[in-house]
Every structure is written in C-alpha cells, then in structure tokens.
## 1
Amino acid sequence: MKKTVLMAAALTTLAAHAQDSTQQTKQTTNPLTISGYVEGYYSYDFNRPDNNNRPGFLYNFNRHNEFNLNVGFVKAAYATERTRANLAIGVGSYMNANYAAEPGVLKNIFEANAGYKLSAKNDIWLDIGIIPSHIGFESAIGKDNWTLTRSMVAENTPYFESGAKLSYASADGKLQLAALALNGWQRITRVEGNSLLSWGTQLTYKPSDKVTLNYSTFIGTDKPDSARLWRYHNNLYGVFQLSEKIGLITSLDIGLEQQTPKDKELNTWYTPVAILRITPSSNWAFAFRGEYFSDANGVIIGTGTPNGFKTTGASVNVDYSPLTNVLLRLELRHLNSKDEIFEKEGANSRNNTAITFSTAIGF
C-alpha cells in the first residue's frame, strides 16, 4: 500500500512538472521575429548610356557601371494562431524606382500589413495593408527568383499592392484562393481624382510537390475619374520540377485596356516567358530564360515608335551559394526590339546587352 501511494505521488509530481514546463514553453515562445535581406550589385550596360540608367522599363539593377544596392530591408514579423503582422522598411535603387510616385515616408515601406484568422477551424485570413503582389511568379526579393534580373513582365506588373486580401488555403495545402480590393496598379496612395477601388483574384493549385499552377487577375483603373480607362490583366503560370535537378517555369500574361473612356475598343498586350533551371548540386544553379513583350499601343511601356514596344529577351544565369543564406550571381542578358528604342552612346539602337553581378545575404 505504501509503495502504491508513493508511486502515485511521484506520478502526480511528474505530471505537474511536465504541465508547468509545457506552460512555461508556451509562455516563453516569442511570436516576434526579426529578419533582413541585403542585395548589392554591379551592372555594365554595353550601350554605355550617358545618364548611367538602364532602359526605363527595368526597375531592378537599373544603374550602369556603378556598385549599388538594389534592395535592403529589415523586417519584423509577428505571428500567433489567429493573428499576424509584418513591417519591413527598405532602401535601395529598387525602392527609388518603384516607389517614386509615393509621398514622404511611404517611399521606404517595403511591406506593412496586419491579418486576422477569421475561422478557428479553417485557414481563412483577412489581411489589410501593403502586401506583396498577387500577380506573377517573381518577387522583389532576388534570392527567391530563378534569375538574377527580373523578367520584363515582372518589371511591368505590380511588385506590391495596397489593399485588403481575403484568402483561403485547404487543409492539405493543395488549393489556395484569394480575393483582393486594391488602391490601384502598384499603388499605396490612390491616384488623385480616382474614386474607385481596383480588384484582384488569385487561384493557386498544387496537385503535387512538383507542380504549381497559378491564375491571377486584375480589374480596375489607375487614372482619374475624368480619364477613366478600365484595365483587365490575366496572369497564368506553372512551375514544374521535371526531375531532381531540372525545373521549368512557363508564364503568359495578357492585358487589355480601353482605348478611350467611352470607347469599347481595347488595346491589348501580351508577354510569354520560359525559364529552365538546372541545379547540379546544392551550391550551384544555372538558368536560361527566353521572353517576349508585345505592347504595340504603348499601354504599359510607351516608346513613341511605329511598332511600339515589341521586344525579345534572352539571358543566361549562374548562381553559387557558398552558405545557405548567401547567394552570388552572374547574368548575361540581351534584349532586341523591333524599333530603335535603346540609347547607345547618344544614338539609338535596337539591341541592348548587359552583364550583372550580385551578392545577396538573408539573415
């Protein structure tokens, strides 16, 4: 009897200690994390532009023949079971180019949003603030992309958006849905004189861990009410891991916009992209990109030339990652246009070739 009492007392004490330890672990788990990212670069444009700026439709790595910072940011992220928030402050030539239209301190807000999980059982979230774009397979964070520079379509669709996002993810992680109300086409502050919101949708399906399919849309206007032109954008892409060492991305964007405020006729543009990546080891990767951008009416990229913007691009990329958080990259890229839209030593040219080197560190 005595042994039984002692054993029961010991088990009770052990259980109480385990419960106290669990509670202490829960209490000491910090929901706040601090991270950062820095991406420096050097780019040489063989056209040697007089103002040292790369072509105006490129918003990353856009300075010629100088060492520069593309983007650097510090991010604070807060996450619990039902709440989340992100705040990232950024600097660099990417910020200067993409946030030029924003006033004051908003020029340095890389990301700022707060979210609440609406359902205790299902993965349904409402996030409001400045969020990453729902369009395209490339982001502003270089290490997350297969190529050093961004595709022409990524450079000319939003990198960030300001608005509200309602999202759902299935329990098995295969299906994700989102609906967005936005301030405009890559806008934090809405265009003065524009009284309407823009809208977006996103559907992502992952039938397996080797295939990702995505379809995103945008509908809205980015002009004052007096000159309102409705814009409709469609983005479809797939990411395919063909084997352990070979991956493929294919993408097609098609956009339409009214020609005049009262006109039913639409201007159209389209841009296909394909990227093949080979990773022979965990330290090395090679990427080959082919792309084309057709915008004959200059809706997205105005040239003032007879054929508008009709440009083909090709690039070769070499990556070396000596550490898990360090990435060294080298890329050779060539662009060829139907018209002479590129500056070359004070004259015009149909061709543009550049070589770019970058170093990226995440922490």
## 2
Amino acid sequence: MLSNLLIGLPVMLLCLLLQAVFVAICLRYYVRFKHVRQGRESLGQDILLLSVVMVLMLLGNFVQMAIWAVLFMLLGEFGDFATALYHSGVNFATLGYGDIVMSEARRLLGPLEAANGILMFGVSTAVMTAAVLDVIKRNPAKLRQDEGP
C-alpha cells in the first residue's frame, strides 16, 4: 500500500500542476479575447469563447488520463496503451465499471486516480462556470433583448 501511495501521489501532484497550467492558459486566452472584443461581443463570439475554454479544460483532463495510463503501462499492468487509457478514463471519471482491473498489488492506484479525476473535473467545472457567469454579467441587456416580448 505504501508503495502505491509513493507512486500515485507524485502523479497526482503532476496532474494538479498540469491542471493549473491549463487553467492559466484558459484564463489568459479568455482575458485576451475579452479585451480585444470589448464592446463588440456577439452571440457567436460568446459561443466560440466558451467552447475554447471547454475544449482546453477537457484536453487538460484527457492529458491527465493519458499520464495515468502511461504509469499503468510502466508498472506492467496493461499490455497496450488503449486498454490502459480506457481503464484510466474509467478511474478518472469515477465510473468504476470493473470490467478491467489492475493486479491486487496496484489496485489502490485506481481510487487515487478517481480522487484526482473528481478534483480535476471540479476545477474544470469551476473555470467553465466562471466563464459563463462572466458572459452573462457582460451581456445583461443583450440577454433581455434576445428573450423577446
């Protein structure tokens, strides 16, 4: 058990740092786009902006799943990357299908990845919520106009 913690915790820290990088990239893109388009926002631009933020956050989560999959491969748990990535995705998203399991010696890594994943999806949700709230805050008059009579 201790060896799994010593292996899993550094990977979790790496994922936390990676998520911070993706959040920073999203925020920089968001602020830059918002500054350039200030006063000229349109529905299409808002959709584009929110879509880019969403895709970047999902990409960050997918990269983290791939990192866990590589770890599983390095530990000899899976013979091919596709299976390791599938198992990683199931863990990261906390689905817990159980159709593919790791060896008894490494099973604790699954819950560690699940804890990591749920935290990272929470961060991604927070970033998306902040972006949506900012779009709503910037466009109250436009939103009322779009509602119609």
## 3
Amino acid sequence: MQITIRGHHLSITPAIEETIRSKFADMTKHLDQVNSMQVKLSKDHQIDKISKKGSGNHIAEAIVRLPGIELFAQATADDMYTSIKKLTEKLKRQLHRHRKMQSEYQVITI
C-alpha cells in the first residue's frame, strides 16, 4: 500500500508522518484491498475576531482508493494530532461499512 502525505502551509515532521503511517497501518491491517492513500494536511491561518485565536484550523483530509471505490474523509481540530485521530476514526467507519456491504453482497450472490 502506498501512502502519500502532503502538507499545505505546513511542514510534515517525522513525528507527524510516523503517526499517520502507524494509524493507517492499524486501520487497514485486516483489509488488503487498499491500492493507495493520499493524506493532505493543511493549516488555515484565519483568526477568529472575537477570541483572537484560530479555532479548528488544522485540517486533515484523506482519499483511500479501493478497487472500484474511493473513500474520502476530512477532519478539523485545534491540534494536528487530534485532527489525524478524528480522520482515522471517520475512515474506519467508512471501511467497516464498505466491508459490511461487501459481505452482504457475497451472501446474496451465493
């Protein structure tokens, strides 16, 4: 499986890269159909005028390519590690739903 990690207005540190690789490896260890993943991390530099700080300005997006389908998820948080965690949780739900639909389809066709 190929994981591509890009940063927009943000440099990808080795710690962030290791976090992403470990979380996505754990998520897909029971699913060998994943062709590739693209992860885009960005930081929005807009500041809230009332609180004078950025709220939810760390954005993590991912595209997971499986045979015949692409899954997309996006998560935002005040911290990049939190947004990566939220992103993996969203993708886990989508992958679980995809596996469930595949198993139901196989039961019907047999």
